[in-house]
Amino acid sequence: MSYLLLSIPSPSSGVLEIGPIPLRAYGICIALGVIAAVWLAQRRWEERGHNPDDMAAVAMWAVPAGVVGGRVYHVITDNQRFRGQWFEAVKIWEGGLGVWGAVAGGVIAAYVLARRRGFDLGDLFYATAPAIPLAQAIGRFGNWFNQELFGRPTDLVWGLEIDVSHRPTGFTQFETFHPTFLYESLWNLAVAATVIWVVPRLLPRLRLGYYFAVYVFLYTVGRLWIELIRIDSANRILGVRVNVWTSITVGSIALVAIWWGHREQSSEAAETASIS
Known about the structure:
By secondary structure, the protein is mostly helical. It has one domain (2-265). It has nine helices and six strands, in the order ββααααααββααββα.
């Protein structure tokens, strides 16, 4: 078909051979995302008057906890893939990290470290709010290398070519699919940019700690519509993918948190003005 001339090709392998050493592209993408996230968080943490090296310490805790949390969430929500072969659950290099579990694990670890070292939690959430979606934007390219988590068939010029061996049952006759990895990557970059440049202007009275809630809300909006076009197998509740319900629930909580944070700061500003 002619549209294939303009489609996005998929890598022939998820392994990069550097001499005799095979490296998993999925892991490399995650590592590059972490490096970029630490760099951005350090800049914003230093902007608040703190030691940028603190963010490296946070990453040392949060990244492993995030990987474990992400894998646990994936195994729980897609447990049918591992029944009878639970040893497969440890093969993280083959893909399969649930974002919600990763964020939860990372946040819990960062919170524990922050409490132990006396870090300002508001500044910590402010520093990491755009750093996490930046990491996600880069890490999503690991799905491209693994030819996984793509969307419905499409004949759009940016359709993603998928090898027959990676196409789900019932879709082997189609050649190109929605590149949901790219959609989510671009969305996450937009989320990071919004948190950095738009939120301070649009919500100038929002407490710094609630910037993280803005990230969560914006991410769930994008994840919601992207999830609706994916065709990989997933557990469902009332016929709807679990991650759709998760996006709606978490996004709603984040939106309430944003409203509360803005309201709280506005109330304090009003009280200060009346006293003066």
